[in-house]
Design brief:
- This protein has about 240 residues and is α/β, with parallel strands linked by helices.
- It has two domains: about 1-75 and about 155-235, 3-Layer(aba) Sandwich (Rossmann fold), CATH 3.40.50.300; about 90-155, no CATH class.
- It contains ten helices and ten strands.
- The protein has helices at about 40-45, 70-75, 95-100, 110-120, 125, 140-150, 170-185, 195-200, 220-225, 225-235; strands at about 1-10, 15-25, 30-35, 55-60, 65, 80, 155-160, 185-190, 205-210, 210-220.
- The strands form two sheets. It has a six-stranded mixed sheet, with helices on both faces.
- Helix 3 (about 95-100) runs parallel beside helix 6 (about 140-150).
- The model has no long low-confidence stretch (mean pLDDT about 95).
């Protein structure tokens, strides 16, 4: 479904990504592990069209994405939920959610049905739909960010550090919800520093260091890998 082949990215004279190869099949939940600054967000920005790859190919459902506009990539069914939530804090929860479905604005009935599904997944957002998004707790704001992404009707969802800054109990809930989204049929590429929690719900994983993929394998292989355990899990 989503394939990166030999993707490189530069920020001016700095090379952020070096020949990255990643594949996520339809229905998979694939985790991208790495420390802060390793290149996880750069990969996501390149996939979603916010940055243009210097070299390589990114294909989604058989279509080349390099050079396509971000709005067109969303319309194709590939939606990016960014690190840091990136909400409009002064706008209501409802308006933030509806912005996620902007590319499908002509289908108001479909958007309303999807909104009800989002409220079913996150009941607290229905209760707080008229509240400013900035007044919510960190965990609730992350729910808004994921709900907004779901309003884009993703076939594949890029989730960038969804557990960042959240309390342990909220992190547990968040990963349960991500697993439910995946089990309902959405392909998920999840960038995370919380390696243990992420691997527990993953099918496969990649490890990135200094802009290079240095390791890949199944959930079990990476959970059992001594280097991964020492570097990212603690053992």
């Amino acid at each position: 479904m989503l394939t990166l082949e030999n993707v490189s990215l530069n920020y001016g004279g700095f090379q952020a990504l070096h020949g990255v190869d990643i594949h996520a099949a339809e229905g998979e939940l694939v985790v991208l592990l790495g420390a802060n600054g390793a290149g996880k967000s750069s990969i996501f920005h390149t996939i979603s069209g916010l940055r243009k790859a210097r070299a390589g190919s990114i294909r989604f459902d058989g279509r080349e994405l390099v050079g396509r506009k971000p709005a067109h990539i969303v319309a194709d069914g590939l939606v990016h939920c960014p690190e840091g939530r990136q909400l409009f804090p002064g706008m209501s929860v409802l308006k933030n959610l509806m912005l996620g479905g902007y590319v499908h604005r002509r289908d108001s009935r479909g958007s309303q049905r999807l909104l009800e599904e989002v409220f079913g997944l996150f009941p607290i957002l229905d209760e707080k739909k008229d509240c400013p998004a900035g007044s919510l707790s960190g965990g609730q704001q992350q729910m808004v960010a994921i709900g907004r992404a779901l309003m884009g009707r993703p076939k594949a969802l890029l989730l960038d550090e969804p557990s960042l800054g959240l309390a342990p109990m909220v992190v547990k809930q968040m990963f349960e919800i991500i697993s439910r989204i995946n089990q309902a049929g959405t392909t998920v590429l999840l960038a995370e520093q919380n390696a243990y929690a992420a691997l527990k719900i993953a099918n496969r994983a990649y490890v990135i260091e200094q802009g290079k993929i240095v390791l890949e394998g199944s959930r079990e292989e990476l959970l059992d890998n001594e280097l991964v355990r020492r570097a990212y899990i603690g053992a």
